[in-house]
Amino acid sequence: MSAETGALTDSHCHLAEDVLFTQLPDIIAAAKQAGVSRFLVPAVRRRDWERVIQLSRLPEVCAAALGLHPWFDVENPADDLAALAQALQQHPALWVGEIGLDFHHATDAEARARQTQRFVAQLDLAQQYQRPIVLHHVRASAAVFAAFQQTGFKQGGIAHAFSGSVETAQLFIKQGFKIGIGMMLLNPNAKKLRHAAAVLPLDALVLETDSPFMLRDAVNTPANVRQVAETLAQLRGESLTHIAMQTEANLNRLFLKN
């Protein structure tokens, strides 16, 4: 991507994962070659946090987030939440994430209750320290919005890996969220997502890969944001330059809010 076309940001990449972290200079160089110059890096487990904080010091990392992903139960939630609060106090630029609810992964009432308890506690911290969140939500939109109401959370953030309807996206937008459009957009069968990406206001969208995940037989990398941007441009009938400029502006507004 040329300077005239504009640079892109991967608004969700797990650079702390070993498969990326151990070859980080090459990963960043390949991304820049594809026109991807910035990265937002969330954590998923407490053991990631120190590495994510380390990554946050890189000039290419425009934001980083610490949190407890809904997939991973923790032995001592109170201790982890206290550590998260301390980290947010010490690092004023950190977001909270990746946090949320995944009712596809948690199928029974007890597991869903544990997820919800951790999510609500992390929302409370995000609201207390006025930080945006990186939101994971799968088959749980109603419960997510109920948690927002319960906690009074109003800091917004990114609804990561969105795959839902236009109507659900509009509810997130009203809550101050940008809609994360990722690798699923490349699937011609993802008709609901493709329709939403085509008709939602462009000023509500950001681009992501969720690397190193989302590809069945290969390691996903931030360079693939270029493919997401190109596909979005085709679906909307807009230029790649316009997509790049607007999605970058959308992210920058979130950063200014923080």
UniProtKB/TrEMBL annotation:
It holds the Pfam family TatD_DNase. One of its GO terms (molecular function) is metal ion binding. Keywords: Hydrolase, Metal-binding. GO terms for cellular component: cytosol. A divalent metal cation 2 binds at H136, H160. The keyword Iron does not apply. SUPFAM superfamilies: Metallo-dependent hydrolases (SSF51556). The keyword Hydrolase applies. CDD domains: TatD_DNAse. A divalent metal cation 1 binds at H12, H14, E98, D210. Belongs to the metallo-dependent hydrolases superfamily. TatD-type hydrolase family. This is TatD family deoxyribonuclease. The lineage of its organism: Bacteria, Pseudomonadati, Pseudomonadota, Betaproteobacteria, Neisseriales.
